[in-house]
TrEMBL record, chains A, B, C, D:
Pfam families: NAD_binding_11, NAD_binding_2. This is 3-hydroxyisobutyrate dehydrogenase. The keyword Oxidoreductase applies. It catalyses: 3-hydroxy-2-methylpropanoate + NAD(+) = 2-methyl-3-oxopropanoate + NADH + H(+). NCBIfam families: HIBADH.
Length: 254, 254, 254, 254
């Protein structure tokens, strides 16, 4: 059945999962004129797997509460392959008492279903992880590029980092230098994977959240600007590990 | 026996290991008036475990060559505990043909003795690792601080990062937030460990090396300045994971 | 007369000027339950001199329009002395046709009353100016500190900069080094002037605005984080030129 | 007369002016095998207008002293037009007692001949100015780009900045947005002017100098990396005000 509006969807069901591009769409689909909350029944469980501003999740949860419904944020990580294999991670924010019901649903799609705390903390966990991921990825790209220019073999350098204190997911599992790790986007012309434009969006959410709680994030701010520059220079559709290419690229005269 | 000069040391021996504070001392101890090279015999193996500018290692190696001696750079990583237990990592740069001899000596002190390539590449590997380490540590500090302010429990956040793509040595093994990992400096008032002033020195070497080979290192440059600021504000003697404290500190009015 | 609510203020008047701390207060005072817009008469001119998010000015202007009132943003720059002397600058955003009426009022307080364009552009101009100001001030602080450490006399260095391409308002009029320019905060223990906490707030607005229009602001992002760090370390109440002190401070061991 | 070596030049003269690309060339031309110092006569005045590392100027000055010659650093600023019109600025470092003699020569080429202090301080002044210039230029580019995206007219925004606290040489005299100031490189496709590659070189000198005196330069470090990235992406031969283009460029998919 295809519904003509979110309101129609909400009429006959007791559980809804949504996954939308950004904060504005979540506000519209839930709180808009023909939104879910206009018809949602008492006791409905609303699971939103969008990656959005934590404060928007909290705002929608408040609106849901006035209807007697429960809204939980449940952003996801793991990428396309994890989705296909049903091993995604869901970071869930919302009332303790509703978590078991949420988990029962999400278990069908994911392997790790983590209760992070009150509504919005799922988003917080996702945002923090992706900020650190972006920092590590650009850091790995810088370290690999520097080492190569100083005469080190890329595979050897990666193996040294990976047995030392510099090791991180980006150096071990998803190395940005082509040929170091087989099967990852860097070894496939940076196709597939997690796009630079999407990472830029998540880094923007992290900066907004950091501003709102007055958290100091010098590298988070720097890496947001680097990914923004990459998008401006045509890397938006490439995997975010293409930071390596961006940093070492030797351009033609413009 | 206590020698009165490096020259005196070099007179009667065929193998020398040195470990000095910085580039200037290495230049003086090897190439100075009463330096090792003034008396070193043909065939002497010179192993320098200082962390210095790779180009200085290369320069001293050239001087050694004119005396028929072999100079290899062999900086070390692993810290005080690894030194006590004899499990240090040595990153060695120098001629393939001399590596076995170097390894035989270094095996007494370390567990991983890695041949990185020509002279200077040991320094290069060390510098790249420590630059990535500093970036990851500040990144982890930012992510943990942001998450805590957004309402996440520190241990829960660390466990989420450590099973996700944000994981790194700094989040898993050496978490900068007190109480998350037992026995590390952050759980002991940031005493012991690897001092902020020493990390700042290594980051300066990384920036010099990056300038010389025209490598782009935006986060490496940023983190160097952050650690420099920390030294200026009294964190020089604290472990480098005290970046977490520096970022979230709520100062008194000045 | 003291009114008991913004609604009461709006009842009997045709012109209102407001100046509030931040976006939330503007939303509340205009759009809240007893807000100005609940009673504002048709044709009322609403001039808001707060420094807030341009998108909030636009949002309130839309609400005002439905009541037949005209809302214009008119943030101010110039500081305490300019206010006393009536030589403030007002950057005004709103309909061309209402500008003359706004100017007639603002002429009583300011010297430069500039029409910047549609509603929100007054904020935009203010935010852009203050972002560039903060960048120039920290840049001047860095250049002065570096030059002094390299052996230059501060006054001589300032005079060289001020006759060269490095000159800016911060180097000429408001030099952050004590003793270079008489009568400015740096020569009075950084008292008075424009507080670091207020500058940090404006830089946060700039970053939010930059995110919303996808503008690349690497130095704007960096300087926001620097001022955030300064606030965390007790400089919030000092003039924003105290960046010079923050950068060169040699802290006691912590 | 064309000499076959620097040594031959130095034989018959009492005053020498040099202007060379970088530190290595100055070391070679003065201190090399057939260098100026191999034949320079007692009392010769050596004026070096290269922009190099201040510590190299100091090193060559020491070598000159042992020959009884006086070496002064005298880097220049002002660009091609100023050179043609004889209105360059020379920043001179060296003994007070030799400054009058140096000035008499430099007066033929420049308008401002400034004695900065001991040898090396001419370089220091030049480096500090150019670091602040680069910071202001990128800052101006960011502010103009942000303002334009927020709906401001570029000329109006420039005029607001130029009568406010954000004003700087880059916003007033050399605005990076095409069409705002006539006759500057931005209005001529960023041709002519001061090349991005040359600015990058000077910023590298500033970072080396900052490292050596432990000066904190967060924006100086950031802007060096931005210009390095620009060189890597093909802007090396464009005027350094092309930072505006780099920041706002909307790239094609790569």
């Amino acid at each position: 059945m295809i519904a003509s509006s979110p309101a129609e969807v909400a009429q006959g069901v007791s559980k809804i999962i949504s996954m939308l591009p950004a904060s504005a769409e979540v506000q519209e689909v839930y709180g808009g004129k023909d939104g879910i909350l206009s018809t949602a029944q008492k006791g409905t469980l609303l699971l939103d797997s969008s990656t959005i501003d934590p404060s928007v999740s909290q705002e929608v949860a408040k609106q849901a509460e006035t209807k007697g419904a429960v809204f939980m944020d449940a952003p996801v990580s793991g990428g396309v392959n994890a989705a296909r294999d049903g091993v995604l991670t869901f970071m869930v924010g919302g009332p303790e008492g509703s978590f078991a019901e949420a988990k029962a649903i999400l278990d069908n799609m994911g392997k790790n279903i983590v209760h992070c705390g009150a509504v919005g903390t799922g988003q917080a966990a996702k945002i923090c992880n992706n900020m650190l991921l972006a920092i590590s990825m650009v850091g790995t790209s810088e370290a690999m590029n520097l080492g190569i220019r100083l005469g080190l073999d890329p595979k050897l350098l990666a193996s040294i980092l990976n047995t030392s204190s510099g090791r991180c997911w980006s150096s071990e599992v998803y190395n940005p230098v082509p040929g170091v790790v087989p099967g990852v986007p860097s070894s496939n012309d940076y196709k597939g994977g997690f796009g630079t434009a999407l990472m830029t969006k998540d880094l923007g959410l992290a900066q907004n959240a950091a501003s709102s709680v007055k958290a100091n994030t010098p590298l988070g701010a720097a890496v947001f600007q680097i990914y923004r520059t990459m998008v401006n220079h045509g890397f938006g559709g490439k995997d975010f590990s293409s930071a390596f290419v961006f940093l070492q690229e030797q351009g033609k005269a413009k």
